[in-house]
Amino acid sequence: MKSHFTFTKKQRSGIFLLVVLMVILQVLFYFYNKKLDVYDKKRIVNTRLQQEIDSLKLVQIENTKFKVFPFNPNYITDYKGYTLGMSVEEIDRLHAYRATNKWVNSATEFQQVTKVSDSLLAILSPNFKFPEWVTNPKPKSFKANSYHTKPKSFSEKIDLNTATASQLKRVYGIGDALSERIVSYREKIGGQFIADVELTQVYGLSPEVIENVLEQFTVKTPKPITRYNINTATRDELVTIQYIDYEVAHNIIEQRILLDGFKSLTDLTKVKDFPVNKIEIITLYLTLE
Questions:
Q1: R_g over Cα of the chain
Q2: Which chain regions cross the lipid bilayer (predicted)?
Q3: Which of 148, 186, 220, 222 has the fewest CB atoms within 10 Å, measured from its CB?
Q4: Is 128 helix (H, G, I), strand (E, B) or coil?
Q5: Which residues are within 8 A (CB) of 270 and not within 5 positions of it... i.e. 6 or more apart?
Q6: What pLDDT, in 10s, does the model give residues 103-115?
Q7: What pTM did the predictor assign?
Q8: What is the residue extent of each domain of the chain?
């Protein structure tokens, strides 16, 4: 046994060096494993954080996407048409069609008027919102004595500025919603209509229903307004008119100078950015004298 535990000086030094080396390796291995654990934990944390950041980015992208809400294509403005992807020519075709006092009542008719592509129509048409009388028309019923009813004279008609919702409901094609809408619109514009043509601005009234209304009602006490000479009116005077802003007023004056004065109120349709579909209302406030 003595021979197994008796070492020379060199052997003891070698054994000691081996033990020290083993300790050093164990210490290095311990710290290396610990570093790997920390790295793995950081990697897990960073992965979760990145996933959170990515999800927030997706939400942000979704929120910044252009959203199209249901709309009536008859009232597409230049800016609205541009954001929808329509060309200037397509928008102009729609405005020219509306200037003739005609209405687009279906996606097919919209494409026929504007000549938009099938792909763009497929994107836009799901968002078209037409009045209820277009999407869900009521069956026409025979109107008794329709061929023998004598048109009412001006004196026999009821003043549209004093008519109640109950009186309006008697008109064929007018229900609770439309009668209340007419009265609400009248209150919104100051309690009085200026002329019969303002009925066209009430949402949901078809030309046929308006015609039925005007068989029994008319504006007898028009709202007093100030009328301006289109050839002398200033920009500040023009902007007091409904549907005319400063930019349109400026364009009217520029066109007036270019034409050396307007010869007809219909010349306004040549003015840049002029709301052609509102010309009948705007001209109520204008004169050439």
A1: 39
A2: 12-32
A3: 148
A4: strand
A5: 255
A6: 888 889 899 999 9
A7: 0.46
A8: 10-64, 73-130, 228-287
